[in-house]
Structures are given as structure tokens and as C-alpha cells.
Amino acid sequence: MIDTREGEQSGQEGMDEFPGSAEGKHVIGAFAGQRKGPSLICTAGIHGNEPAGVEALKRVLDTLHAHPQTFSGRLVALLGNTEAFSQGRRYVEKDLNRMWEKDRIAQLTAHKAEDLKHEDREQFELLEVLKSATRGNPGDVYFMDLHTSSADGPPFAVLNDSLYSRSFARKFPLPLVLGFEEELRGTLADYMDSLGHVSAGVEAGQHTSSLAVDHLESLIWIALVCAGNLSQEQVPEIQHHYQRLADCCRDLPSFIEVRYRHPVKRDDEFVMQPGFRSFQEVESGQLLARDRQGDLTAPGRAFLLLPLYQNEGEDGFFLAAAVRPFWIQLSAWIRPLRLDRLLHWLPGVDRHPEEEGVLLVNARIARWYTLDFFHLLGFRRRPSKGARFVMVHRKG
Ligand SMILES: [Zn+2]
């Protein structure tokens, strides 16, 4: 099932050591140009029941191999959770897209691969492949993690709000969703962003829909152009790809920010009301789901994202609000001024005693500095217990 023909028709480097090895099963394929340039690394199937990204990557690789052309840098296509993928399940033991925190990775890599199993083993192998794929061109790596969902809906991009990731994903004709990084810990896209790579996640629609494959294929071509691997003129159908995505995102806001996540535990008996889709607008008090505690209603007017219609997964639904483009532009102007370095002079705000770029905010004293204020200056909230918010400054 996995195509490891990388390098047959081009000067492929760096991935050759994997075919036949344990890590080789993660390589869907790769294509390298004769000219030096950026690497676009795409992962698909990090949730094993999401085959659309794998299919889309194969389509793009097949076209590139069939019509070799002047290509700068390389495209590397990776399969995330190989064991869950072969079983058509989201995961075997735990969610491979919630395991990428740095301390956890440090513990994992202290083991030998053969002592690990299921998702731990998959992560260990993926780390090796990613290390190889990013070697040699730090700062020039673009990363996309391709997903689908149990609910239907238009495609959208999920990004960490660093200026460099934002400027990459802004060229996609898709709504951009900020704020997942504060609700979901340990995603692969977050980890790649923390290494300084330009990074985005993509949700393309319903798991088994052929449209999701089409959307992802279009997006991969657009990403190759935006990253600088190909020029627009080298992709004859590029206008069709832009149009295909723009058509299904018409009338949607350009930026929205996640404000709420409904977590689901195994014994919650969570059941989403039927018929919802991502980006559907819901009203205050509207019934969204039921669980063993009773009705779950929308606390206010919001955009609904990723309502859960499958048995696996810990996110029942997300609620998001539109962000005015003015704020996006304002933060792009303000962040380079590095006002973040002065914030610890404000009442209720202290520097973290050990970690650079981290502030501890006493929510009672610093009440008037809203979360939006910190977002504007390039901070993200780190989930934490206790009376103080932990705000971490992004690199870009
Ligand atoms: Zn997924």
C-alpha cells in the first residue's frame, strides 16, 4: 500500500535509508527536485481512520513522478499511525496526535524501539523519519498535517499563531482557525512549530468523502506553490485548485478563534445531536448534544467545529468566534516591537522563575488584561492548574 519509490526520477536524498526498515513503513513517498529549496513535509493518517490525506498525497506524487519538472527542494509524504491505519481505527491504545510534548518525547527516546509498542513505537519511528526529513535545511521546512473528521463540513486550516505560520497559511483560500493550540496539548503540528518549522494542520471534511481527497489534493498543490517548490506556471491546474477550495468556503469568515472545547470521557455517554457540521452557526441555548449529566447547550452564538459522530475521540465539539481582520493585522504590526519583554512590569504579571519567555499572570490582579491582549502580543496560554495563568511567548 505504501509507495516508497522516492528518488527514482530525481535526486532524492535523505529518505533512502528507510525503505525496508521499521521507519520505512511511514514513508508514503517523496519527490526531490534537482535544485535546492524548501522541504514540504506532509503527514496523513496520524489518526488511522483518516485515509483521505494518504490518497491525496499519492495522487500528487504520482503526477510529479509522471511529469517530472523543475522542482525546488522536496515533498516528503509520511503516514502517521501505521498500525491503526491498517485496522481503520483512530488509534490502537492512545491518540498519536496528543503525544508530542517535549518532556514526553525526551522520556520516550530514552527507550529502545523494540521495547515500545503501539502508539509509543509509532511515535518513536516517526521521530526518526522526521529527523531525517528535516536534516540539512532548518528554517526552510514547511509542515502540514492532513486530517478529516467524523462530521461533514468545509475544509479549514488550523494553525499556531506564530507570524511565520500565519503568513504561510494565509495564502490558502481557506478559513484559518486559531486557538486549537490552547485547547489541545501535544499535537504533532504544535511540536513541529516549536522546532521553528512553518506548520499548519488541515481539516478537509468527512472521513470517507471523495470531496475530502479532492480538497486535500488541491491544498497540497497550493502549499507546494506557497512554499516555493513550484511556481504557479508549473502547475497548469492551479487556478482550478484555488477555485475548488474557494467555492466551498464562500461566505465563511477568514479567521476564527476557538473559545471552548467540550471534553468527552469514555463513560460520559456523549451523543451529539444529529445533523450538525463544522462551521455551522449555533445560537445561545441551542441543544448541541446530550450526555449522562443531561443536555449540552450552546452558551452563546458561535461557530460549531468538529462535532463528534464517532465512538473514538476525546473532543465532543468546539465553539469558535470570528476574529476581525483588523486584530490580525494589528498583531502583525505590534509583535515585532517586542513589547512582550516589558509586560512583567505590569501589576499581577511576573516572569516565570525558570523559563524564559514565560509569564505568570494573576487573573485577579491583572483582570483587565484579557486573554486577547496577550494573544495580540504573541502569547499563548499553557493549560495549567492554580490561580495564575501561564502565558508562553511564541518564537515568531
Ligand atoms: Zn484527525
Structure characteristics:
single chain; globular; 396 residues; eleven-stranded mixed beta sheet; binds zinc ion; Aminopeptidase; 3 domains; alpha/beta; disordered N terminus; four-stranded antiparallel beta sheet; OB fold (Dihydrolipoamide Acetyltransferase, E2P)
Brief summary:
The chain is of the alpha/beta class. The protein has helices spanning 52-66, 82-87, 102-108, 118-134, 163-169, 180-183, 188-194, 210-227, 238-248, 325-334, 371-376, and strands spanning 27-32, 35-44, 72-79, 141-149, 156-158, 176-178, 198-206, 255-263, 271-272, 280-282, 287-291, 294-297, 302-305, 315-322, 349-351, 358-362, 379-382, 388-393. Strand 2 (35-44), helix 1 (52-66) and strand 3 (72-79) form a beta-alpha-beta unit.
| Overall form | globular
Strand residue percentage: 25-35%
Strand order of the largest sheet: 1-3-2-4-7-5-6-8-14-13-10
Share of residues in helices: 25-40%
Write out the distinct hetero groups bound to the structure: zinc ion
Poorly predicted ranges: 1-14
Number of separate structural domains: 3
Radius of gyration: 21 Å
Which architecture of the largest domain would the CATH scheme give at its second level? 3-Layer(aba) Sandwich
What is the CATH topology classification name of the largest domain?
Aminopeptidase
> Largest beta sheet, briefly?
11 strands, mixed
CATH class of the largest domain: Alpha Beta
Please trace the helix and strand order, writing H or E for each element.
Answer: EEHEHHHEEHEHHEHHEEEEEEEHEEHEE
Count every helix, treating DSSP H or I runs of 4 or more residues as helices. 11
Kindly state the mean pLDDT as a whole number? 86
Helix-and-strand structural type: alpha/beta
